[in-house]
Specification:
Blueprint (H helix, E strand, L loop, with lengths): L4 E6 L9 H17 L4 E3 L17 H17 L6 E10 L2 E10 L2 E7 L23 E4 L5 E4 L3 E5 L6 E6 L9 H7 L4 E6 L7 H15 L3 E6 L16 E4 L2 E5 L8 E6 H10 L11 E5 L22 H26 L4 E4 L4 H17 L6 E5 L7 H14 L2 E4 L3 H11 L8 H22 L2 E4 L3 H6 L12 E2 L6 H14 L3 H11 L19 H5 L2 H13 L4 H11 L6 H17 L1 H4 L28 H9 L3
Amino acid sequence: MEQGYVRAAAVTPDIRVADTSYNAKAICDGIAGAAAQGAKIIVLPELCITGYTCGDLFLQEKLLCEAKKELLRIAEFTSEIDAVVFVGVPLVCRGKLYNTAAVLNRGRILGVVPKTYLPNYNEFYEARHFTRGMEEPVELALTKDIVVPMGTRQLFVCEELPELKIAAEICEDLWTAEPPSIRHARCGANVIVNLSASDETTGKAAYRRELVLGQSARLLCGYIYASAGDGESTQDVVYSGHNLIAENGRLLKESTPFCSETIYSEIDVFWLNEERRRMTTFEPSGEKYRETYFSLKKEETALSRAVDPMPFVPSGQQDRRRRCEEILSIQAGGLKKRLKHTNCRSAVIGISGGLDSTLALLVTVRAFDALGIERGGIKAVTMPGFGTTDRTYDNAVRLIHCLGADFLEVDIRDAVRIHFRDIGQDPGVHDVTYENSQARERTQILMDIANKTGGMVIGTGDLSELALGWATYNGDHMSMYAVNASVPKTLVRHLVRYYADTCGDKELERVLLDVLNTPVSPELLPPENGKISQKTEDLVGPYELHDFFLYHMLRQGFAPAKVYRLAKIAFAGLYSDETIHKWLTTFYRRFFAQQFKRSCLPDGPKVGSVAVSPRGDLRMPSDACADIWLKELEELRR
C-alpha cells in the first residue's frame, strides 16, 4: 500500500444454487486465492452464499438460517486473511429480509450494507422477497455476541492507510438515476465496491462497462464490480461473471466472459484524492456516515497494472489518428480566431526544418484554408545561421514550397557577427551568448517582418521545451500566438506523422518523413562534417522521459519517488535506473528554475490535460524552491 496503491480483486466463485455449505467453501477458496495474489480488497458477487437465483427459496427459513451460519464461518476463515472482504448474503433484520453485502476483516464482521434499489421488472422480481435497505445504520444481531451496524450510510476505513475509504452498493443501485455511490463518494469514499448478479443479454456487457467507467470518472473513485457467473440457475437467464475494475474512467481490468475469472488490479487512492482536491466542483457532503475501521498490513504493492511510457499519446492506432485530427483542429481553430479577431492577413513563421516549426506551419496552413485566405499570406522564413545543416535547410525549403507558403530567406550570420563585435563577444567562444544571440536575432527578424506585412509571428515552441525551459528568453520563447504551447514533444511527432499519412501529396509526405527522422537540435553550434553537432536529447535528456515525468508530476501530482518507480516500470529494458534517476533530477531542477520563462508566455491554445500557461493551468511562483523534491530523489540513491 506504499505510495497509495491498493490491490483489489473481483472474484466469481463457481457455486450451486441454495447449497450454502458448498458455496461457502468456494467463497473461502476464492478469498484465499485472491489474498495469495496480494489482494487487499476482495469483492464477491451479490447473494453468492446462497446464489442469486434462489427465487421463492428465499422465503424458506432453512435457507436463511444456513446462509447466516455460513457467513459466520466465512468470517472466521478470514482471521488469517490480510484483506477486507465483501460477500453477498440474504439477512433478516427486524422481521424483514434484505439483500446485503457483509464486510469482513480478520475474523470480524464489520458491518452489513443493504441493497437500496430492488428491481421488479422484466426478468427481475426482487421486491417479492426483499425489502429496500435502510440508510441510517441500525444494530443487527447476528448472534448473541455479534452485533453489527446495518445500513447504506457506512464507510469502511483502513487504519494503516486512512486515505482509503470504501463504500458498497449492490447491482441495480448502479443502474438507477441516483446511485447510492454518489452520496458515498461525496461523504468520502474513494473506492466503491459493487456486488452484482447481472444477467447477460446481447449488448448488455458494453452498457455495463460504460456504467462502471462513467461512475468511476464522475465520482473520481476506484470501482470494483464483481458479478455472478457459473453455478447460477440458467432456467430463464444466463450469468457470465462479468467482472470489472476501473479507476477514474479508466478500465484497469476486465474478465473474460463466461469464465468465472478472478481479476486483479491496483487502485491508486493517493491519485484519486489528489484529483478530488484539484477538482473544485467535487463538493463534499455534510451527511453523517458511520465509519468503521479495518486493519491491513502496510507493505509495498507490486504493480500489475500497465504503466504507459507515453501518457500523452493514445496507444491504439485508430484512437491516435482520431486524437491527432482533433488536436490539429484545436490548434488551427485557435489561430483562426486570433487571425480573424486581429484582421491579420499575414502570418510569419521561422522554418528551421525541425519538427516544431513544421507542425506550426501545418497548423497555420489549416487556419488559412479555414478562413479562405491565400496561403501566400503565410510568410515562411528560413534564417540560416552558424549551425544550419544542408539537410534541415533543404527540408525547410521543400516544405514551404509544397505547402504553397511565401518563401523568404534571411541569412543571419553577418548580422550576428556585427552584434558580436558590438558587445565584445569572441566568435570563437561557443558559449550561451554565442547560441542565444542567434535565437534573438531570428526573433527580431520575424517580428519586424510581421510589422512590415501587417501580420503576427506564430510561435513554434512546444510544451516539453517550456517545461524544461529549453528556449531562449525573448528569442524563440516569444511570439504573438504560440500554437504548439501545450503539445508535448512525443505528441508532436505523431501529429506530423499523421499529417504525412493523410496529406495525399507524395512530395510533402517525403519531406515530413525526413523531418521526423532528423535529430532534434536547435542548430546553434557549427556542424561537424556537415552533420548536426548539437543534439538536444544529449544535453537535456530524452524527451520521452521528460514527457513522462511532466505528466505524472504536473497532471497527477505524484511525488518524485512515485514518478521514479513508475518510470522504472514503464521504461524497463530501455533505460537503466541510473539514467532515469539522472534525467528525473534534471527535470525537477530545470522545471523549477525556468518558471520565469513560463510566467510570460504568449497566448496559445490548450489541447490536452496538461498545460503550463500562467493564465490557465499553472499558477506557479518563479522563485519556488525545488529542494524538497530534489532531496527525495537524493534519498532514493541511499
